[in-house]
Amino acid sequence: MSESLKTVLGNIQQNFKSNPENASVKFESKSSLIEGFHSRAFLRHHSIDVDEPKELGGTDQGANPVELILAALGTCQEITYKAYATVLGIPLESVSVELEGDLDLQGFLALNDDIRPGYQQIRGKVRIKSEADDATLEKLREAVNAHCPVLDIISNPVPVELELTEVNRCHLAR
Amino acid sequence: MSESLKTVLGNIQQNFKSNPENASVKFESKSSLIEGFHSRAFLRHHSIDVDEPKELGGTDQGANPVELILAALGTCQEITYKAYATVLGIPLESVSVELEGDLDLQGFLALNDDIRPGYQQIRGKVRIKSEADDATLEKLREAVNAHCPVLDIISNPVPVELELTEVNRCHLAR
Q1: Which of B42, B62, B82 is the last residue of a domain?
Q2: A174 has a pLDDT exceeding 50
Q3: What band does A19 get if pLDDT is binned at 50, 70 and 90?
Q4: Distance from the Cα of residue B129 to its chain's centroid
Q5: What does the pLDDT read at residue A77?
Q6: From A140, which residue of chain B is nearest by alpha-carbon distance?
Q7: pLDDT at position B3, please?
Q8: Coil, helix or strand at residue A80
Q9: Do B50 and B78 share a domain, yes or no?
């Protein structure tokens, strides 16, 4: 299984080395508010229901958007550990992640302009089971944290451009 | 329905105004790699399956982590539009979001150190249906983009602290 994943990853790397333009990809999301704070997002043929918990005015039909951010970070760490352990030939029996994010809702609710609406800090534990020695695992950790896409997205600024369109009038683009 | 959401949001704001310490909350995620790149994340009693598409070495049992980031941003925009429209008394019949993110996989795969592993840019369209005039909708857009938690998390740096633990030996904390 891991040997075949190693072959697949090796082939992907070889393809991108020979044709760097193939490595430029686009990911897409389409979502709509259904009722109250309940939204549904479509990612290719996958869908995810998102809502706020009852204490925040929702009907709790799914995790909320800031919880999705933590799920994205935890699973991205896991996938990146698996990918780099496979490519570097480091044994990795299991990997799991626990995260917590501090958020002050005064920011979201415009009650205090000095408080950001997003997470003030995210902390977590990555737990792995491996036969490798400490120096090897430290090398793995460094490779993962330097290349984990979601860790980069959250830790560093990403330029975001959003255009608002009024669907009936279609002249509000900006 | 919207009137009752307005009451709920008003009560939440009033509570946090009187007791700002109640506005400091923690969100949590626990996730584990199951097989290959397939992971499952738990957010309170909700769970989300995450995987990579087959072209990236996965078995496509869910959206991938960077797609979750787009889903989080789209649904957070929708919820924030709904919340601010409700509180400000601006009519809002529907809101939906389409996003695309540019990612160069040479970054993730360590093929080019000058290329970041995360999104280089995210672009999108927010489509709303509303009877409000342009100036009112512009005011709404400004309020939303100043207070949308996930837009802040993605656009600006969030400090992330991750500790690696080897579950058998328990002495790899850092």
Answers
A1: B62
A2: no
A3: very high
A4: 23
A5: 98
A6: B164
A7: 63
A8: helix
A9: no
Which residue is associated with the tokens 């309170």?
B44
CA distance B21 to chain A (A): 9
Domain identity same for B147 and B81 = yes
Which ranges of chain B have pLDDT less than 70? Answer: 1-3, 169-174
Domain containing B53: what range? 1-62
Cβ neighbours for A114, distance < 8 A, ≥ 6 positions apart: none
**What's the pTM value of the predicted model, to 2 decimals?**
0.95
Residue B83 is classified by DSSP as H
Q: CB distance A165–B127 less than 8 Å?
A: yes
Number of folded domains that form chain A: 1
Residue A8 lies inside a defined structural domain of this protein = no
Q: Using CB atoms, which residue from A26, A70, A76 is nearest to B101?
A: A26
Distance from CA of B139 to the nearest CA of A (A): 12
- Non-local (6+) Cβ contacts of B1 within 8 A are A35, A36
- Looking at residue A168, what is its pLDDT? 74
pLDDT level of residue A2 (50, 70, 90 thresholds): low
CB B125 within 8 A of CB B98: yes
